[in-house]
């Protein structure tokens, strides 16, 4: 049970980040299946951050057909910048975990970049859809960096300052909205208040709390009888959370639901995880119910049964 809880915690953290990214796709007026087309500049290459990137890359690859070619193609959607700058294959003593995201020298030169290019240089050249902060460096998204995000090719650039506690957040929502503009999408790892943008407009501060997924992934895994939490089960949970908001909410920049909905979210996520476990033939059954019986349950009935 302790190993399951640990796996659920790790999966919940990565899953919430992916759900936020999928929510940003929706907020940008695109279907979630367009996620593999998103350009993502990542600040931070620690183990936790690389874990999120690996999960995001696998999600992209599954959307592209879940082939080796798709997995390799998904790598090109990420530009990873650490304390020494942009990571390329020229980097000496590169961390093995970051190696898969190191750009080839010829490719990066064609983009007008180089090994060790600064965060602001990378943002200016790439014009990303998302600036994802996983650095634990407070204030890393400086005025210069946020100004560069105004040139994003997306009409609704997303700024994810995911490091916590609050003092480690890469920027505040006030800084993001005041510099990038009211069309920005903001998410954080720490709690912040929404920002009054004037004229009746609100800048929503979406906190990516793993509470959204931790209970549902755990419940769904337990009830399915699966011995593992597969990439598909994690993706199913993330997509379920990203789809939870209405179109009206998403248009307003809301990419995570109210925490008051946690019980209903947990039910929905658990059911999605169970269905995916069955689809992947990982479910071994729950109590007297074998996997075949689980598979015959409707979504509504499974919600009532499990929750």
UniProtKB/TrEMBL annotation:
(S)-malate binds at residues 164, 209. GO terms for molecular function: malate dehydrogenase (decarboxylating) (NAD+) activity; NAD binding. Keywords: Oxidoreductase. Its cofactor is Mg(2+). The lineage of its organism: Eukaryota, Viridiplantae, Streptophyta, Embryophyta, Tracheophyta. Transmembrane segments: none annotated. InterPro entries: Malic_NAD-bd, Malic_OxRdtase, NAD(P)-bd_dom_sf. GO terms for biological process: malate metabolic process. This is Malic enzyme NAD-binding domain-containing protein. Residues 12-278 form the Malic enzyme NAD-binding domain.
């Amino acid at each position: 049970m302790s190993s399951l809880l640990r796996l659920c915690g790790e999966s919940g953290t990565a899953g919430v980040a992916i759900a936020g990214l999928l929510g940003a796709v929706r907020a940008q007026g695109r279907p979630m299946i367009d996620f593999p087309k998103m350009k993502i500049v990542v600040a931070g290459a620690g183990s936790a951050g690389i874990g999120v990137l690996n999960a995001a890359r696998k999600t992209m690859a599954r959307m592209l057909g879940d082939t080796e070619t798709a997995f390799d193609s998904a790598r090109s959607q990420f530009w990873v910048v650490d304390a020494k700058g942009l990571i390329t294959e020229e980097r000496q003593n590169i961390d093995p975990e970051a190696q898969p995201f190191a750009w080839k020298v010829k490719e990066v030169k064609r983009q007008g970049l180089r090994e060790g290019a600064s965060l602001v240089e990378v943002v200016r050249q790439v014009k990303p859809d998302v600036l994802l902060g996983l650095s634990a460096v407070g204030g890393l998204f400086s005025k210069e960096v946020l100004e560069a995000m105004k040139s994003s090719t997306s009409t609704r650039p997303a700024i994810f300052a995911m490091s916590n506690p609050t003092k480690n957040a890469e920027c505040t929502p006030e800084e993001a909205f005041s510099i990038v503009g009211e069309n920005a999408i903001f998410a954080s790892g720490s709690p912040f208040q929404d920002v009054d943008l004037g004229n009746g407009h609100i800048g929503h501060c979406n906190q990516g709390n793993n509470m959204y997924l931790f209970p549902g992934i755990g419940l769904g895994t337990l009830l399915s009888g699966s011995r593992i939490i597969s990439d598909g089960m994690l993706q199913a949970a993330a997509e379920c959370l990203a789809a939870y908001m209405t179109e009206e909410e998403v248009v307003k920049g809301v990419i995570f639901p109210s925490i008051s909905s946690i019980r209903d979210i947990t039910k929905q996520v658990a059911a999605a995880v169970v269905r995916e476990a069955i689809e992947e033939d990982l479910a071994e059954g729950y109590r007297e119910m074998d996997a075949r019986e689980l598979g015959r349950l409707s979504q509504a009935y499974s919600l009532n049964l499990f929750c």
